[in-house]
Structure formats: C-alpha cells, structure tokens
Amino acid sequence: MKKISGTHISNTIIEELRLEVLALKEKNIIPTLAVVLVGDDPASKIYVNNKKKACAKIGIKSEEIILSADISQQELLNVIDKLNNDISVHGILCQLPLPSHINEKIIVERIDPNKDIDGIHPLNLGRLCMGNAGTPGTPIQSFFYPCTPLGVLEILKRSNIKIAGSHIVVVGRGPTIGRPLSIMLSLKGMDATVTICHSKSANIKEITKMADILIAAIGVPKFITRDFVKEGAVVIDVGINRSSDNRSNDKIVGDVDYDDVYEKVSAITPVPGGVGPMTVAMLMYNTVRACEKKFPL
Amino acid sequence: MKKISGTHISNTIIEELRLEVLALKEKNIIPTLAVVLVGDDPASKIYVNNKKKACAKIGIKSEEIILSADISQQELLNVIDKLNNDISVHGILCQLPLPSHINEKIIVERIDPNKDIDGIHPLNLGRLCMGNAGTPGTPIQSFFYPCTPLGVLEILKRSNIKIAGSHIVVVGRGPTIGRPLSIMLSLKGMDATVTICHSKSANIKEITKMADILIAAIGVPKFITRDFVKEGAVVIDVGINRSSDNRSNDKIVGDVDYDDVYEKVSAITPVPGGVGPMTVAMLMYNTVRACEKKFPL
User: Fold this and answer.
1) Average of pLDDT values for A38-61?
2) In degrees to the nearest 10, what's the CA dihedral of A252, A255, A256, A258?
3) SS3 B82
C-alpha cells in the first residue's frame, strides 16, 4: 500500500507491548512511567494526555507530576533526583519545552540515563554515536534510542522498505530528530548511505532527488514538493506544523506537500496519522524496555 | 598550494599553544596531561612518545603512567579514579587499544568528561550531537571534540577551504573519526551538507564524485583513486595504514592513491605529513583548553 499508516503500525506495537506487560504483571512487575509537566502550555498538556492514554491501553502505570510554571530550577532538579532514586519508577519523561528560566540541558542531563526513555540524554546520544548497542528495535539495547527516530525506523522496517545500501537523505539536523536519525540509519547493521542537509544547504533539490528514501524533518510546512523527489522514492514526513489559523482546533501540516508528491512516490506517510503516533508508541516501547532491563523476563 | 602540509599547520598550532602556556605559567598554572599506557604494544609506545615530545615543545607537563599488560580492569579503574580526583591533572589520555581482558568502553566512560581531552567519552560525543557548544576551534567549548576530526577541521579552516554550503562526503563511519567528523561538519555554524558512506554503501563512486570535499577514513590503503574524485575537489586523507612488508620501519600508506588523484584535485593532504601530526596538535590544544577551563586567563 502506498500510504503508510503510522496509526495502524503504532496500534500493532501497542498491542504487542500490552501482551508483554501482561506477562510482566504475572511476575508482579508493573512498568511505571513518571511524567513531569511544568506549567500549563496547552500543546504540552495534549502531548502528556496522549502519553497517559497510551500507558492506560498497555497497562503501564503512569505517574503524573504537575508543577507550577514558577518552580525554580533547583526544585525541579530535586524532583528529578527523587524519581531517579525511586526504584518503582522505570522511566522518566520531562515534557519539553520548560519555562525559560530553567536550563533544559541541565535538567535533561540530570535524568538517570537508565531511565531516559525519551532517549535525549547526551550519554545515550553518545552511545548511539559509538554504535555500541544492539540493533534498534531488538529487545536488547544497551541504551535508549530517541522516540521519533526510532518510530521512523520501525515504520521502514514494518513496511519492508530496504534500508541497507539505500541512499537516505534526511532534511533537517535538529538534535531530537534529524541528527540522531541520520546516525542510526548509517550504523552497522542498518547500513544506509546517509546525507544530512538543512536550511543552509546549497542545491537542496539536487540532493533530495538522489534519495531512495527521503525523510523530511525541517519544520517548514509543505517544504517538499514533487520537484524535490525522485520517481519511486519513499517519503517519510516527520513534520508537525500547526497551521496559521489560530483557532483552538489547529490543523496539523507536515513538511511534505502530500498531494503534490503522491503520484511520484512509491510509499509515503501522511500527516497526521504517520510518524506522529509512532513517537508515543516508541516511548511506550522504551518504557517497557527500561522495566525489563531491571527485571529480566 | 595544492599539497596541504599538516606538519606545517600543526607546528603553527604548537607554537600558538607554547605562547598560551607561557602566559599560564606566569600565573603559576602548569597544564598537565596524564598518559596511561597499558602493556607494551610497539605502535602505542610510538604514539605515546610523540605525544610526550609535543608536550615538551609546548611546556605541558606530561605524567606517564606505565602499567603491566596483566593489570586487572578494576586496578585500571582505580588508576583512572585517582587521576580524575587529582586536581593537578587537567587531561587524561588512556592509550588504546587496551589488552583484550579489559572492556575499553568501561574504561573510557570512567574518565572524567571534563578531563577527556581525547574527546571520546560518550557524554562528550552526545553533547557534540546536540550541537550545544561553541564553534569547534574557538577558545570556548563546553566539551571536547575528538582530536583527529578536530584536526581535519583545523586543516580546512587554516587552508581557507569553504565548509559552509559545501557538499562533504565522508567515507568511513568509525566512532573515532568518520562518525564524529560527519556530525561536526554539519553542525550549525559549520553548515556543510554531509554524506556518510562506508563499506556497505552501493554506488560509492557516484556518491564520492559529488563531493566538493572528500574525506577518506575507511582504513583501506589507496582505496580512493581518480575515478572516485570530482575535478577540482579537495581531498583529505585520514588513513593511516601500515604497509604489508613486516619490517620494523613500516611504511605508512593513506586511504587515497595520492599520485593517481593529484592532477585532478585542487588541494590534498599527503600521508604521512597530513592529518597525522594534526591529531597530536589537537590533543595538545584540548589539554590547554582543559586547563584554562579550570583556571580562566
């Protein structure tokens, strides 16, 4: 099928995880995710809610820690420390962005790397760089992969899209998506040839038109049109842009002009319903892994 | 000049550092590098000796800790801990490879990231991924860049080769050179479009022929011949391969067939005398930085 449903794949993963968690519970192990939410950013609230819902479906216990927007950095560090030391908590998610008086890097580095189910601690990114892990998506990992890149990888694998030997072009070099994804895809065992380009790249169309698999993570609505795409390419749209009409029911727009490229590609993820739901699924996946590492089946 | 002399550039850097160290010494600050050598691998001994010589030229105090090949992992960890806690030691270099009964990853992760002047601790690699640093080569860095990639960057900058907007192809994805270099070159402020290819890449010549700057770090003698290179490209050869004739005076051969590509390129680094001497110079650079971070000028 040309249109790849991330919703469908994420539901499959959630069902797989539900069965895993059932088996864990028979051993009296309850995977537990602590979600820290600072302030009342509406988008953050929605994200946190989606994560709670996914936890409920799978049987992961979610503990929500809601903190006032004026909490001091030290107080937040104390909250993180407490969760780090709580052996009943397997994963810690601190919803970003944080209020501007708090240094996000300091908070992220404080999370125990073994509980960093978001896969954003620099120690986990560094291990990713060194490639000293199992293959992404396998049960045994020596660290956590960041959720959205891992979701993209799962989409490709579960859609039987060939990664090894393919030329993959990643448009976007952000530290949460483009950067780690470009690394993961070229690791040993993945074996893609990977080009990373970005807002400062020259001749960007020339580059993207070489891609067997084109991944858009540049954060510009409908940036990728048909003239960026090789005939028969696979296109993965990681963009989540809110449309400019400022109503409460914001429309989500991807980085790819879906209708414009559709006829030219061999497969494509839509927005919404593509990579978006995968991010939450892989967060759940990492949480179950974090739990199993401590209580091997 | 078409042939880029890494020897010349590294001598310039060493002279710059000598003057910096003179100024530090006037404040009674003596930059100190601890070099740990386990066993008696002849190549490792040569490397350590070169590093000691560079220290002597610059005025960096080098402390050599020579350990027997049968030292236990725990004993080596104790040595590292002692150096971590010694405030007179600014940089720690543990010469790799280590004997096979010792897990290198565990040793490397034990080195205090603030003394990791080799830039190989995963926390430093992770920070590099996140791009949360000053620009490489500037005095203020929030972490250390690995020495050989930093040396390549210095060669490009001091030879006035344009990085921003260029398409740079890195052949090789190893965790010490190809991988971090590909990341550094595409960071904000560097702004190259970067392709990483490797032994499993298909159509590798097609890819390398697009490169404005081609960097060879694949570890195969004379792998890059003229048919891999675009007319007028810049070629940086990071290969250090020992020739197969097993005499004590091994000949060093690069990853590039220098004579074959010479007429076609606009600039090229030789082997030896190219990237090799830069690695030691940048190790010295990182050591002085490590010292200054603690004792700001």
Assistant:
1) 94
2) 0
3) helix
Q: Please name which of B123, B183, B199 lies closest in space to residue B150, comparing C-alpha atoms.
A: B183
Q: Chain A contact for B209, CB < 8 A?
A: no
DSSP state, A97?
P
Please report whether residue A31 resides in a domain.
yes
Q: Which domain holds residue A39?
A: 27-118
Please state the pTM of the whole predicted model: 0.93
Nearest CA in chain B to A169: B195
Residues B174, B244: one domain? yes
> Are B61 and B158 found together in one domain?
no
Asked which of B113, B134, B164 is the last residue of a domain, the reply is B113
Structure tokens at B41: 């691998």
Is A186 close to B165, i.e. CB distance below 8 A? no
Q: Which two tokens stand for residue B199?
A: 């032994």
Asked if residue A246 is part of any domain, the answer here is yes
DSSP-assigned beta bridge partners for residue A35: A64, A93
| B118 Cβ contact list (under 8 Å, min separation 6) | B93, B94, B144, B146, B147, B283, B286
- Does the CB of B37 have a partner CB in chain A at under 8 Å? no
A77 vs A67: CA distance, rounded Å = 12
Q: State the Rg of chain B over Cα.
A: 19
CATH number at residue B42: 3.40.50.10860
Tell me which of B116, B118, B212, B255 is the catalytic residue.
B118
Question: By the 8 A CB rule, do A113 and A56 touch?
Answer: no
Q: Does the residue A54 lie in any domain?
A: yes
Which residues have CB under 8 Å from B249's CB, separation 6+?
A: none
Number of domains in chain B: 2
B123/A128 touch (CB, cutoff 8 Å), yes or no? no
Residue A55 lies in a domain: yes
Residue-wise over A38-53: b if at least 16 C-beta within 10 A, else e? bbebeebeebbeebbe
Tell me which of A5-19, A247-261, A265-279, B160-174 is least confident: A247-261
Element housing A35 (H / E)? strand A32-38
ipTM over 0.85: yes
- Closest alpha carbon to B143 in B281, B297, B289, B296: B289
Strand B234-237 and strand B267-268: pairing? Answer: parallel
Element (H, E) at B196: strand B193-197
| Cα A141 to Cα B202: distance, rounded to the nearest angstrom | 28
Tens digits of per-residue pLDDT, A220-257?
999 999 999 999 999 999 999 987 665 556 689 999 99
Q: How many CB atoms lie within 10 A of CB B166?
A: 21
Distance CA A266, CA B257 (A): 40
Q: What is the pLDDT of residue A135?
A: 47
Look at residue A159 and tell me whether its pLDDT is greater than 80: yes
d(CA B91, CA B114): 8
Q: How far apart are CA A191 and CA A186, in angstroms?
A: 5
> Is A172 found in the same domain as A72?
no
Element (H, E) at B74: helix B73-85
Does residue B207 belong to the interface with chain A, where contact is any CB pair within 8 Å?
yes
CA-based nearest residue to B147, from B50, B265, B254, B241: B50
